[in-house]
Design goal:
By secondary structure, the chain is an alpha/beta fold. It folds into two domains: 131 residues, Rossmann fold (3-Layer(aba) Sandwich), CATH 3.40.50.720; 103 residues, Dihydrodipicolinate Reductase, domain 2, CATH 3.30.360. Strands 2-1-3-4-5-11 form a six-stranded parallel β-sheet, sandwiched between helices. It has a five-stranded mixed β-sheet with strand order 7-8-6-9-10. It starts with a strand and ends in a 7-residue tail after the last helix.
Length: 246
C-alpha cells in the first residue's frame, strides 16, 4: 500500500520539485497539491504532509496535520530554536507523531553547516552571508539561522566578536552572530560563513546552482517520514552526518 502524501506550497519552486519526487518514488502517492486557496479539509486523507509553504502559514499547517494524526515534513523557513522548542513540547503529548524539519534539502549545504560548527569554537569572529533569489520572502534564511544557532551552541557560550552590531548595515544578530541577507536575480541559493582570526580568514561556502540539488534530500525525508517519531531537525540526522545534530 502506497504512502499518501499532500504537499502544502505545491505551486512554488520547491513545492513543484517535491511533487515530482513524490510521483517518481515507488511506494508513495501524491494525493493533494495544496496552495493558499485550498480548503482546510483538502489533504486530510494523506499519511504525510510536506510543508514547503510560507512562514506565516507553516505553523497552522503543521498543527492541523498533527491534529489529524499525519506525519509531517517541514521545509519552510522560520522555524527558529524557540519555535522548535514549542513544537518539541507539542510532540511530547503525541507519542506516535513525527515531524522532520529540514532547513535545507541540499547535501552540500548540510555538510557546509557541519564544517562551520566544527570550526566555530576556534575563531572569535564569525559572520554569515547568505544570498537567494528575489522571490524568497523571508530573511535571514532558515539555513543561515540554523547554522548560526549550531555554531553558537558549539562555542559553548563564548561570545562572538561582532563590533558595531547596533548599526543596521552590520546585519541581523542570530545567536550573537551577524547574518547578512542578499536577494538577487540570477541566484538560486548561496551561503558563506567567514571566520576571522589573527592573520587569517577561513571561508566555508556552498553554492546551489539549481533546485536539482534538493532532490536527494527530499527523497531521504520522504523515506524517513512514515516511521518517524518525535522531532527530527536537519537532513544530517537522516543521513548520519555527524557534527550538526538537533
Amino acid at each position: 500500500m502506497s504512502v499518501r502524501v499532500a504537499v502544502a506550497g505545491a505551486t512554488g519552486r520547491l513545492g513543484t520539485l517535491v511533487c515530482q519526487v513524490v510521483e517518481e518514488t515507488p511506494g508513495f502517492e501524491l494525493v493533494a497539491r495544496l496552495r493558499s486557496t485550498s480548503a482546510p479539509e483538502e489533504g486530510a486523507n494523506a499519511d504525510v504532509v510536506v510543508d514547503v509553504s510560507h512562514p506565516d502559514a507553516s505553523a497552522g499547517i503543521v498543527e492541523r496535520a498533527l491534529e489529524r494524526g499525519q506525519q509531517v515534513i517541514i521545509g519552510t523557513s522560520g522555524w527558529s530554536a524557540d519555535r522548535l522548542d514549542l513544537l518539541r513540547e507539542r510532540l511530547a503529548g503525541l507519542p506516535n507523531a513525527g515531524v522532520i524539519v529540514v532547513p535545507n534539502f541540499s547535501l552540500g549545504s548540510v555538510l557546509g553547516t557541519a564544517l562551520a560548527r566544527i570550526a566555530a569554537p576556534h575563531f572569535d569572529a564569525v559572520e554569515i552571508i547568505e544570498a537567494h533569489h528575489p522571490h524568497k520572502v523571508d530573511s535571514p534564511s532558515g539555513t543561515a539561522v540554523r547554522t548560526a544557532e549550531l555554531m553558537a551552541e558549539a562555542r559553548a557560550g563564548h561570545p562572538t566578536e561582532a563590533p558595531f552590531a547596533e548599526q543596521p548595515a552590520r546585519g541581523q544578530l542570530v545567536a550573537g552572530i551577524p547574518v547578512h541577507s542578499l536577494r538577487l536575480a540570477g541566484v538560486v541559493a548561496k551561503q558563506e560563513v567567514r571566520f576571522g582570526g589573527p592573520g587569517e580568514v577561513l571561508s566555508i561556502t556552498h553554492d546551489t546552482h539549481s533546485n536539482e540539488a534538493y532532490r536527494a534530500g527530499i527523497h531521504a525525508a520522504l523515506e524517513a517520514a512514515p516511521t518517524a517519531t518525535g522531532l527530527t531537525v536537519g537532513l544530517d540526522a537522516l543521513l548520519g552526518i555527524g557534527g550538526a545534530g538537533a
